[in-house]
Amino acid sequence: MANKRHSYSYPTRIEYGPGAMKDLTAIVKESGLKKGLIVTDNGIVKVGLADQLKGYFNETGIETVIFSDVKSNPTEENVMDGTQVYKDEKCDFIVGLGGGSPLDTGKTIKVMATHDGPLAKYDDMKGGDKYIKDNMPPFYAIATTAGTGSEVGRSSVITIDKTKTIIFSPFMMPDIAVLDPTITLSLPAKLTAATGIDAFVHNLEAYIMEVFHPMADGMAKEAMEMCVKWLNTAVTKGDDVVARGNMLMASAMGATAFQKGLGLNHAIAHALGALFDIHHGLANAIVLTEVMRYNMTRETTKERYASLGSIFDVENDAVQVIEAIEKWVEELGMNVKLSSLGITEADLEAIEKYAIGDPCYPLNPKVAEKGDVVKILKNTL
Ligand SMILES: [Fe+2]
């Protein structure tokens, strides 16, 4: 609230625009660094992007090693394997190249390069942030998807023993975030839609969070408008640099805004990711409007939803906004039912149990009670 003390931290250096990825290599060269670990995934390797980056570094005389053993929901094992490569190869900096998974993995390798294990020691829910010191190698984050905004975030989500664990420290903020729309042009339509919805939900959940942060609120509202204006084009016309650029920026804005926190939508999405390996963006899309219907029973949240009317060209009315979002999700082909992914009513309690333990759950403005998540999920079966 406006009469309380807050500590704000707006993010990091951002290099935006076509050619920004290549330009990063010159910036790294100027810093005097010698050998880098490129943390990426097999999909990025397959489309040739990892080799392209390696080639740019080669041109500047900097050696790099590619580590691509990163799952879509990255695990402790992925982090520790990458850390071993970093140490064995005597690297002195790390570049994350990818969507949220490689960027979160890279960020966490940065921690484990100079900190003792086990990784669980740094679990943010258990106060692990206090053990993370500012003695880590430089980390540069190149986003290849417009969704997680991990490139401007100070935390990572890593699965430790089947539990999604948040590792957080202000020192984990990437030294430079690279937003180069030209490297996102080949992202398939489905993935573009799923990651784009993730970006939208970040902004939406940040926007309804009852924390006094008008800077973040303004950013979140603008970014939601950008998502609604540009995501359909990015999906249907993947080579549109302007649409891709707007979505990359909206994604970075979302991750900046969600310093305020994320809520129930993400708590459930994390459960669906951890228990059923459902893509994070898709998981968010599946429950989006049902979570909104649930949340709007809280008056302050309903008012926030209503204030988004102009973005969807409807009245400032929460129900109309939710209906417009439903239609939009359908246009994007993200109106998937949980049953089509093999989930049955018998699974819902386990999903709720997981969601209740998720760090985003207690932050939701409407305080959820036992059984509420099951009810929400039933409507998405
Ligand atoms: Fe997300």
Quick one: CATH superfamily of the largest domain?
Answer: Dehydroquinate synthase-like - alpha domain
Q: Hey, roughly how much beta strand do the residues contain?
A: 5-15%
Number of helices: 14
Mean pLDDT equals: 95
The poorly predicted ranges are none
CATH architectural label of the largest domain: Up-down Bundle
The helix-and-strand class reads: alpha/beta
Any ligands, ions or cofactors bound here, and which? fe (ii) ion
Gap from first CA to last CA: 38 Å
Q: Using the coordinates shown, work out and report the CATH topology of the largest domain.
A: Dehydroquinate synthase-like, alpha domain
- The strand line-up of the biggest sheet is 1-8-5-4-2-3
Whole-number tally of structural domains: 2
Please give a quick description of this structure:
This protein has 381 residues and is α/β, with parallel strands linked by helices. It is built from 14 helices and 8 strands.
What does this structure look like?
- This protein is α/β, with parallel strands linked by helices and 381 residues long.
- It has 2 domains: 13-183, 3-Layer(aba) Sandwich (Rossmann fold); 189-378, Dehydroquinate synthase-like - alpha domain (Dehydroquinate synthase-like, alpha domain), CATH 1.20.1090.10.
- It has 14 helices and 8 strands.
- It has helices at residues 20-30, 42-46, 49-59, 76-88, 100-112, 189-208, 214-236, 241-257, 264-276, 280-295, 299-306, 318-331, 348-356, 372-378, and strands at 13-16, 35-39, 63-67, 93-98, 139-143, 155-160, 163-168, 176-179.
- The strands form 2 sheets. It has a 6-stranded parallel beta sheet with strand order 1-8-5-4-2-3, with helices on both faces. Strands 6-7 form a two-stranded antiparallel ribbon.
- Helix 5 links the parallel strand 4 (93-98) and strand 5.
- Helix 4 crosses helix 5, helix 6 packs parallel to helix 8 (241-257) and helix 13 (348-356) crosses helix 14 (372-378).
